[in-house]
Amino acid sequence: MPAPIPVPPGDYSLATKHYSPTATINHPTHLTVTTTSSSRVNGDWGFKRPFPLKTTTNTTYPLIRIRQVDSTEHVTDFQSASDHTITLQKFQELNLPISVPPGGTAYETESYTRNPKSVFEEDSDVTALNEQQKVELANKRWKFTGPWLAGMTDGDFSKFLEKKVRGRRPEFRAFLKETLAAERTADRIEKARLAGETTEPPKISASDITDAQLTDYLRELRQERMTLYNLVSRFLDLAPIELAIEYRLLGRLAIGKPKELSRGSPYGANGPPITHPSAGISYLRTRNFQENHPLYGPQKHHLPVEGRVLKPTNQATHNFMPTIGVAGFVGSVSAQDTLFNATKLKSSKFGKALREIELEKYGGSKVYVQPTNATIDSRGNVCINIGEADSQAEEVQKEFEGKSNVFEDELKALQEPEIPRNPRRTPTTFSAPPGSRVTGSASSYGFRPPAKSNYRN
């Protein structure tokens, strides 16, 4: 069995609040073990001792997690793993791809909403990189050997400096010599090109850099904080920082020295993920597939999902966005002008479910929403982005769940009512079959009822 991964860090603000020790953590840390129904009855789970039936047969699905295979008391420590496993099953039924999280700027957030990018793209989902590729893909890759400095405490940062940084001063000076030699070589080539020289000038190696030149270069770097941090980040392979911090250091750049700025990393604001950005919960790259209905054929929209309103909107407390749960996760509602924040829907059924707590309903208020994509932040939390559902797709989903009969109602509406041959026909009038000859009379035209016959069968 693989070793468990670290427990997600807790929220320090909850230290003075109520915390449940049995609450489901953000992500699973142990492997889930299952068995067949026949082996479950006998307590056989593939370990050296059988498990008690009283605690392993009281759940619907045979799913457990092993916290410790053997202890000093010769007891296997286990517990139910239905919480994370069933949640994973429900999430995979949504057919959602995992996207790269948006950056900290408003432009990147809007671009992410319109065109989400999968975490399995070739330019970002690469871990085997050489030194040149690490520099080129610094704002796209997710795996770094160094820590994220913005997320470290003072004690952790001091330990990091003492154990992994102070002893590498000679290596860093050699790295700076190579960098300075490359910069001077590039300047020499640029001057030769502007002068019209046809021959390429000789390259400057790191051995040609003297200690005095290196000292002057260090003095320049102390004034250019952004360039110094980029060099230190390349040397220690540190996770990128937020782009807004680099913008605040633009005023300290040297005059007349060009500086190329690129788009910030999506992991600069909150840090890189602790595992792969997909976390193994979905391997879809896109949601651009079409669903086919057995009666209505190909569908324009994906079928919506019924979500539970966990926290309605309340303008008195300045809570203008509802909190909706989808498949065991808390969905993220778009801040744009949608049905979730429109004030004109106060009297509608959808708006009532978002703005009032309907205690008389079993399970609370529920609305149909359309999941678009999902992301996983640096702490392992799954964030599902949801939008408003299409009305026709909602009716199709209700019929699929047995809550309405749209197809049968449409068939009944299309059926033409039976029109009698005689508009004035009554139950007592006489009507001959089509094609037969009938002598015209007042009775046949419907002006008076026919005479009653005394003949009986």
SSE map:
Blueprint: E1 32-34, H1 37-41, H2 53-56, E2 63-68, E3 77-80, H3 82-93, H4 106-114, H5 131-136, H6 154-165, H7 169-195, H8 211-223, H9 225-236, H10 243-248, E4 292-293, E5 297-298, E6 305-311, E7 323-326, E8 329-333, H11 349-355, E9 366-376, E10 382-388, H12 391-400, H13 406-414
Parallel strand pairs: 8-10
Antiparallel strand pairs: 1-2, 2-3, 4-5, 6-7, 6-9, 7-8, 9-10
Descriptive account of the structure:
This protein is of the alpha+beta class and 457 residues long. It is built from 13 helices and ten strands. It has helices at residues 37-41, 53-56, 82-93, 106-114, 131-136, 154-165, 169-195, 211-223, 225-236, 243-248, 349-355, 391-400, 406-414, and strands spanning 32-34, 63-68, 77-80, 292-293, 297-298, 305-311, 323-326, 329-333, 366-376, 382-388. The longest helix has 27 residues, at 169-195. The relative contact order is 0.10.
